[in-house]
Amino acid sequence: MAELSQTTSPDLSGFPVAPGDVQAAADTIRGAVVETPCSYSRTLSGICGCEIWLKFENLQFTSSFKERGALNRLTALTPEERARGVIAMSAGNHAQGVAYHAKRLGIPATIVMPVGTPMVKVENTRHHGAEVVVTGATLEEAAAFARHHGEARGMIFVHPYDDPLVIAGQGTVGLEMMRAVPELDTLVVPIGGGGLISGIAIAAKSIKPSLRILGVEAWLYPSMYNAIHGGNLPARGDTLAEGIAVKSPGKITTEIVRRLVDDIALVNEAELERAVATLISIEKTVVEGAGAAGLAALMSDPPRFAGQKVGLVLSGGNIDTRLIASVLTRELAREGRLTQLSLDIPDRPGQLAAVAALLAEAGANIIEVSHQRTFSELPAKATLLQLVIETRDAAHLDEVMARLSASGLSARCT
C-alpha cells in the first residue's frame, strides 16, 4: 500500500489545534475522565511478532474515548450557551459522552442517532438523561436533522469529530500513551471522522516526531482513505465497526491526517470479527468492532509490524451482547471448532446412536441434532441428519471427517 508523505520532523503549525491545546484539554478533563491503563500484552505480542501495548479506552465510564472530547467542548460553553442546551448526532459513543457529561454539568442535551444504531447505545444514552431522537438512514442524514432541529431551538451543536476542542480532548489519549510508554515506535488508531487520530497525531508527534501513526478503517467505509488517496472506493453496507462507519470525514481532520498520519489500512469484516473474539479470549476485555480495528490491522499483516513497539487504541466497548455471541460462534466456526454436518442415513432404529457413538470415539461433542425426513430429496427410506459438532481445532475436525468417511458415512460440512 502506498504510504502518505511524511517527514522525520512533521510540521505542526497552521492547524486549528496545537499541542498546547491538547495539554490544556488534559488539564480540563483531569479527574472527570478515567486515565485508562496502557498495558503490555505478552500473549498478543507473541502471536503477532512485535511488542504490543493496549490503551483500554473501553474502560471509560461510558466505555469510549469520546468522553474526552465531549467534556472538553462542553466545559468551554458560556453560561448562556449552557442554558440553551446542546444537540449532537452520533452512532452511539459520542452520544453517550455528551449525554453523560451534559448531565453532570447541568446542561440540557438532545442526541440524534441514525436508524440501526445498536440498542445498547441508544438505551445507555437515554439512561444518561438525554432526549434521544432516532432518525436518518446514515450518520450524515442524522447530522442534517440535528443541525436543523438545533438551529430552530437555539441549541449548540457539538460535532463528534470536526471541532478543535473535541479534537484536542481526544488527543489526550496520545499524551497518556506516550507518557506511559515513551519508547513506542508506532501507534495504530481507528478512523471514523478522524477526531481521535488527529488529536493523537498532534499530541504524540509533538513529543516524538519519529513516531509512526497508522490509521485503520473498515473496508466498507474507506472515507478517509479515499480523501487522502483521491480514491473512490464505495462506502456502504452494515459493518461490525459501526462506530467508524462514516461516509464523509471532517475537513479539519482530513488536513491533519494528510500531513501527520503515515498510512491508512483497511480491514474486512472477518478480520474485525477475529479481532473482537481474540480480545475477549486473550485479554478478557469486551471491545466493539471499531475498537478492535487496530488489532485487526495488526493481525492481518504481522510482517508490517515485526520487531516494533506498537500501541493499539481500544477505542470503545459498546457492543450488543447478541452480537458478541454471534461473533464468538462465527469465530469458532472459522477455527474449525464448531461445524455443521449433514449426513444421509437409513431411516431405521439405531442409526443415530451409531453416528453418535462414532463421533464420541473421535472425541467430538454433539451440540445440536436435527432429523429431516420430509423436506429433502432423499428416498423415503432415508433421512437427512444434521448435526452441529464441537472439535478442538481444524486438524481435529479433519480427523473426525476421516473417521466418518472410513465408516461408510457420507458427511458434508454445511
Task: Describe what you observe in this structure.
By secondary structure, the protein is of the alpha/beta class. It has 3 domains: 19-61 and 171-330, Rossmann fold (3-Layer(aba) Sandwich), CATH 3.40.50.1100; 66-157, Rossmann fold (3-Layer(aba) Sandwich); 336-413, ACT domain (Alpha-Beta Plaits). Helix content is 43%, strand content 18%. The strands form 3 sheets. Strands 1-2-10-7-8-9 form a 6-stranded mixed sheet, with helices on both faces. Strands 5-4-3-6 form a 4-stranded parallel sheet, with helices on both faces. Helix 9 (195-207) links the parallel strand 7 (186-190) and strand 8 (212-218). The radius of gyration is 25 Å and the shape is elongated.
CATH topology of the largest domain: Rossmann fold
Main sheet record? 6 strands, mixed
Helices, by number, come to: 16
Order of strands across the main sheet: 1-2-10-7-8-9
Strands, total number? 14
Radius of gyration, in angstroms, nearest whole number: 25 Å
- Give the fraction of residues assigned to helices: 40-55%
In the CATH hierarchy, the architecture of the largest domain is: 3-Layer(aba) Sandwich
Overall pLDDT confidence: 92
Give the CATH level 1 class of the largest domain. Answer: Alpha Beta
Give the overall silhouette: elongated
Spatial separation of the terminal alpha carbons: 36 Å
Number of domains: 3
Summing up helix and strand content along with how strands pair, one would put the structural category as alpha/beta
Organism: Bradyrhizobium frederickii
Protein name: Threonine ammonia-lyase
InterPro entries: ACT-like_dom_sf, ACT_dom, ACT_ThrD-II-like, Ser/Thr_Dehydratase, Thr_deHydtase_catblc, TrpB-like_PALP, TrpB-like_PALP_sf
Keywords: Lyase, Pyridoxal phosphate
